[in-house]
Amino acid sequence: MVRLEAVVLPDKRRVALTPPATVRCTFAEAIAHWVREDVTAAVRSLKATLKSIDNFDSYECRGRNRVAGAKLSEHGRANALDIRSLVLGNGTRLDLTDPQVSKESRETLRKSACARFSTVLGPGSDGYHENHVHIA
């Protein structure tokens, strides 16, 4: 496992994960590629830069949805990251579950996440993912 504090972009800028995420090495690589190639492009289409990612949850040894006795969550395997929002260079917070954020932006990010990760959960998937986006 690694502590993922930031993703370094090709231009050497750092996109912080706040707080840092604890994940498996291969999952950290997948996150880095997604941020470098897809998330920054989506943010650039808004004529903005990406400053940080609000990490809601990463590694935690627990059952799915924090249910005692449930099958081990991907969080328990260090293969999941819950993202609440993106913080832009100008300080604006782009909440990934906020219907006030353009549907096009949210859909672009969702589609790119679905193309890279085996599980993407958010509002509408179940009651546990209404206020963040889970990627695994």
Features:
136 residues; alpha+beta; Muramoyl-pentapeptide Carboxypeptidase, domain 2; seven-stranded mixed sheet; 2 helices
Descriptive report:
This protein has about 140 residues and is α+β, with helices and mostly antiparallel strands. It has a single domain (about 1-135), classed as Muramoyl-pentapeptide Carboxypeptidase, domain 2 (2-Layer Sandwich). It has 2 helices and 7 strands; from the N terminus they run ββαβββαββ. Strands 1, 2, 3, 4, 5, 6 and 7 form a 7-stranded mixed β-sheet that branches.
- Rg is 14 Å
Q: What is the CATH C level class, in words? A: Alpha Beta
- The total beta strand count reads 7
**How many domains, in number, for the residues?**
1
Main beta-sheet annotation: 7 strands, mixed
Named CATH topology: Muramoyl-pentapeptide Carboxypeptidase, domain 2
Mean pLDDT: 95
Into which percent range does the helicity of residues fall? 25-40%
Low-confidence regions? none
If helices are DSSP runs of H or I spanning 4 or more residues, what is the number of helices? 2
Distance, first to last CA: 15 Å
Strand content: 25-35%
Could you give the order of the helices and strands?
EEHEEEHEE
Name of the CATH architecture: 2-Layer Sandwich
Secondary-structure-based class equals alpha+beta
Please state the overall shape, judged from the principal axes of the Cα atoms. Answer: globular
Brief overview, please?
25% of the residues lie in helices and 30% in strands. The chain is α+β, with helices and mostly antiparallel strands and 136 residues long.
